[in-house]
Design brief:
This protein has 272 residues and is α+β, with helices and mostly antiparallel strands. Helices cover 26% and strands 22% of the residues. It is built from eight helices and eleven strands.
């Protein structure tokens, strides 16, 4: 499938419109803070979710949705026993239970480790931290009832200040997505562009500029790489992250852009 993009461009470079002077200090802050917070995993079920390119559905990377379906009853009972609240889960109702992101039973840390160690599940983003928590992907642009956590304000003050300076009318989600050395971000899309005709407003920023996120153009068999340290793209396009021999991260901020900012981007990218 060819790229859909935004205004016929794969990426919109927003670095010229934000103050990146604090990026070095933000990077130092983020690294120290990550040593002091509890992080989680994300990803790991893109095949089950049906959001990977058809050509990659049979690749070697293990998906936890497929693993859960194939578990023996004894293995499933062990898995349920590793939940944060195992008493709330009845393994005998296995056919009714759903586990993972945006499901009735989120995976606990112990469950994720069991899936990784015992079954070889690949979780691409092993350093995942929410500064502004958001429960459902469909609600990531809405700020209703959301704010930075107390921990984020305390341990990431420069980062929070920078995010608050971005040209959003409101912010509904702010999350850090990090990859361990040599891990890659699995190619996926967050929606089907044939069904979702609008593009969500967000800015991804990478203070070190070393996370090689790309968009996959299936039709041309080419990859378009992020142009700068702060950018916007259509997440209904297939995207992934290249592996590198060191830890990398970016922070994604979702919300609603200020009208003046959106109009400025439109003028610059399409002309008057």
């Amino acid at each position: 499938m060819a790229l859909v993009g935004i205004w016929e461009r794969p990426f919109i470079d927003v670095e010229p419109f934000v103050d990146t002077a604090a990026f070095d200090a933000i990077h130092e802050e983020v690294c120290l803070a990550l040593a002091n917070v509890q992080v989680s995993y994300t990803g790991g079920s893109h095949k089950t979710m049906g959001i990977v390119p058809p050509a990659l559905r049979g690749d070697a990377f293990v998906d936890y949705g497929e693993v859960l379906r194939a578990m023996s009853d004894a293995q499933f009972e062990q898995f349920c026993g590793l939940a944060d609240e195992p008493a709330a889960i009845d393994p005998r109702r296995r056919a009714e239970l759903e586990f993972g992101e945006e499901r009735s039973h989120p995976l606990s840390r112990r469950q994720m480790l069991y899936l990784k160690f015992r079954f070889g599940v690949y979780f691409p983003w092993k350093v995942y931290y929410e500064l502004v928590p958001n429960a459902f992907w469909s609600e990531k642009s809405s700020s209703e009832g959301k704010d930075f956590t107390e921990e984020a304000r305390r341990l990431f003050p420069r980062t929070v200040s920078f995010v608050q300076s971005l040209p959003f009318e409101s912010i509904g989600s702010c999350k850090l997505l990090g990859l361990e050395a040599n891990d890659h971000g699995t190619i996926h899309r967050d929606a089907d562009p044939a069904e979702k005709l609008t593009v969500d407003h967000f800015i991804t920023f990478c203070p070190r500029g070393d996370k090689r996120l790309y968009l996959l153009d299936e039709a041309a068999n080419t990859r378009a790489y992020a142009p700068s340290r702060a950018y916007w793209f259509n997440d209904s396009d297939y995207h992934g992250v290249e592996p590198d021999p060191f830890f990398r991260y970016s922070i994604r901020v979702d919300g609603v852009f200020q009208r003046e900012f959106l109009e400025k981007l439109l003028r610059i990218n399409l002309g008057d």
